[in-house]
Amino acid sequence: MAKKPHEAASKFTNAFPADQILKWQKMVDDWLLDHSNPDPYAEPPPSTTLATIRLELAREEAADATQIVASSSPSAPERPSPSTFIRFGIELEERQRKLRLRTDRPGGGDKKAASLQERRNVLTRHIQSWNVHQAFYMPGTLPPEASTPETTGDVLVHDPPEVTKVWLPSALSSDVQATSCCQGVADIERRLRRAQMEDALGEVRRMRRVYAGLLQRVKQNISGTGNKANTRSKTSIRAFTGKIKLAVERYRGARAALISLDPEGSWKDMFKELRKEDNCGPGREEDEQSEG
User: At a CB cut-off of 8 Å and minimum separation 6, what does 183 contact?
Assistant: First the structure.
């Protein structure tokens, strides 16, 4: 039983330069001797979070007298700030992911069908509302007949809402971004996507650790105790695999957006493509099917 973990550890160790291994070993030895030294096992805090960027953007918009402002016409709808507009579009994408995950689950009958339709109706209205403001901040992305608030929502939403394209600046080429988006909107998305990507990667890591512990607990304490207990454990495992899948898709979506918005940015040195085979561990079971 112990042979396989040792082989895996040796293979992993051999993947790094010898001087790097010595450096890490010294960090561990120093910490074991004196816990006031840096903890080599502590996960470094994220350098950027969505909450941090939201606060920065809110302060900038409050201080910038030349920011984009909504029309003061009584007939015009109240418009969100540019950062709120982009953030709402990113949140719409997340709602779409969650709804797609629900539609992929089998069974449920009429109760599930009714719940899905209600969620689709709500999401459709949110997309239509966002399209109204899109006509102001990204007018070049809409067809002429959809350029007014009265027609925007009705024109753009044809497909099921969970697959309807949310036309954020990152979905456009750089040339179209320059001509079809209000100044600063694409850069706002770039900053939010960078934070979203780091948040999502941290969520993947956290969820995988929880998932590994859950699998171990199920294996030790529940397996073989009866159908009811096993059904509950499988439901818990399924819920966590769904959360992992959402976080993986969120990371990939944010990274794809950044490739469009900032293709030569320094972020590419740290945030790599998250492949299917990368989404595994720690303590991955032999029969586990990696999500995504």
Answer: 68
